[in-house]
Amino acid sequence: MNNPVVISLGGSMLYLKDDGIDVEYMRAFEKLILELREQVPNLVIVVGGGRLASEYAIKARAETGSEFFSDRAAIKATRENAAILIRELNGKACPQPFTTPDEAAAALEAGQIAVGGGFLEGITTDACSVIVAERIGARSVVNVSHVDGVYDSDPRKNPNAKKFDSMTYAQLVELAVKSDDRLARTNFVFDLIACKLAQRSNITVHFIKGSDLSQVRAAILGEKHAGTVVRKS
């Protein structure tokens, strides 16, 4: 495939702080994606769960006492979010959220933007994004969230936290080991499984603040940006 790129779109980007879908952001993001199609015709977007996944996971955990079913509920939320984005893309995306890496590949082969959510209990949409990247031969994953890069500690708690402009897979894995406890809707820098998968396939990972769409654009195009780049060396 012609230089495919996978975008891991944090579910929190889709929601306003108070309540409801952030329609303005969704439309601006959709506009960017459609503008970039000529330069990057093979685009995959894996959508996270955000607030909706939190609600679903908490309810399922309380009802079942099972992390498996909590994960399954969160996956359902990611697919509902993906369906919202598909509607915004006005017929340019696959008609339904893809649920396997093969379905994502098939959507690209059909000339569509491939949009999906999670597809396996026990892993996050970070890992799903990297798995899809491996399946379609993408060399980069763009992680879009409210955070402007990767820090050596939580910048919300530590005002002296150091931001990385670039880092190795080993450094990212070290950070993920400290914070990834495998529970649905807990926040950590990047899924440990996603880190290891990116490392084994030498997939560059870009961490970008999603509210600055000029930075998102730069990352998708492989240009210099203000976020963090993770690569072999």
Task: Give an account of the 3D structure.
By secondary structure, this protein is an alpha/beta fold. It has helices at 23-36, 50-64, 67-88, 101-109, 125-136, 169-179, 192-201, 213-220, and strands at residues 5-9, 43-47, 114-116, 140-145, 150-151, 163-164, 166-168, 204-209, 228-231. The chain has a single domain (5-186, 197-231), classed as Acetylglutamate kinase-like (Carbamate kinase), CATH 3.40.1160. The strands form 2 sheets. It has a 7-stranded mixed sheet, sandwiched between helices. A two-stranded antiparallel ribbon has the order 5-6. α1 links the parallel β1 (5-9) and β2. α4 crosses α5. The longest helix is centred in the N-terminal third of the chain and has 22 residues, at 67-88.
Summarize the structure.
This protein has helices spanning 23-36, 50-64, 67-88, 101-109, 125-136, 169-179, 192-201, 213-220, and strands at 5-9, 43-47, 114-116, 140-145, 150-151, 163-164, 166-168, 204-209, 228-231. With 233 residues, it is α/β, with parallel strands linked by helices.
Q: Which keywords apply here?
A:
233 residues; alpha/beta; 7-stranded mixed beta sheet; two-stranded antiparallel sheet; 8 helices; 9 strands; 15% strand
